[in-house]
């Protein structure tokens, strides 16, 4: 599944700020946008949220931008909606 993400690095905590169906999220991260720290933190955070391995999450567009497109292996649109409809 492809997921569009807007990242807000250097924030107070790691959290999902906004989820808009079907595939958009805004996420704040404590990590700084230096030395790939925010990208690594984003992948680890989403791996915890979606209960996937870090290797299942790939940044396919926007590695140096706040707006990114990620590929998450093994995640369906139905699972994504179910997780955030609670």
What does it look like?
The chain has a five-stranded mixed sheet with strand order 2-3-1-5-4, covered by helices on one side. Strand 4 and strand 5 (67-72) form a beta hairpin. It is built from two helices and five strands; from the N terminus they run βββαββα. The protein is globular, with a radius of gyration of 12 Å. 26% of the residues lie in helices and 34% in strands. By secondary structure, it is α+β, with helices and mostly antiparallel strands. It has a single domain (2-75), classed as 2-Layer Sandwich (Conserved Hypothetical Protein Mth637, Chain: A).
Element layout with pairings:
Elements: E1 2-8, E2 15-20, E3 24-28, H1 37-50, E4 57-61, E5 67-72, H2 77-84
Parallel strand pairs: 1-3
Antiparallel strand pairs: 1-5, 2-3, 4-5
Task: List the defining traits of the structure above.
globular; alpha+beta; Conserved Hypothetical Protein Mth637, Chain: A; 2 helices; single chain
Concise synopsis of the structure shown:
With 86 residues, this protein is α+β, with helices and mostly antiparallel strands. It contains two helices and five strands. The protein has a single domain (2-75), classed as 2-Layer Sandwich (Conserved Hypothetical Protein Mth637, Chain: A), CATH 3.30.1200.10.
Low-confidence stretches: none
Q: In the residues, how many domains can be counted? A: 1
CATH superfamily: YggU-like
**What's the total helix number?**
2
As a whole number of angstroms, the C-alpha radius of gyration is 12 Å
Mean pLDDT: 94
Order of helices and strands: EEEHEEH
Biggest sheet record: 5 strands, mixed
Class inferred from helices and paired strands: alpha+beta
Which strand-content bin applies to the residues?
25-35%
In the CATH hierarchy, the architecture is: 2-Layer Sandwich
Question: What helical percentage do the residues reach?
Answer: 25-40%
Assembly classification? single chain
Indicate the CATH class: Alpha Beta
How many E-type strands? 5
CATH topology: Conserved Hypothetical Protein Mth637, Chain: A
Assign an overall shape. Answer: globular
Question: Main sheet: which strands, in order across?
Answer: 2-3-1-5-4
Terminal CA distance: 20 Å
InterPro entries: DUF167 (IPR003746), YggU-like_sf (IPR036591)
Family: Belongs to the UPF0235 family.
Pfam families: DUF167 (PF02594)
Protein name: UPF0235 protein THC_0056
């Amino acid at each position: 599944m492809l997921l569009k993400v807007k990242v807000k690095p250097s924030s107070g905590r790691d959290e999902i700020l906004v989820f808009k169906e079907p595939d958009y999220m805004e996420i704040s991260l404590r990590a700084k946008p230096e030395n790939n720290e925010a990208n690594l933190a984003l992948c680890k955070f989403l791996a915890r949220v979606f209960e996937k391995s870090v290797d299942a999450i790939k940044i396919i567009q926007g590695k140096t931008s706040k707006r990114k497109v990620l590929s998450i292996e093994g995640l369906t649109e139905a699972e994504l909606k179910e997780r955030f409809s609670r």
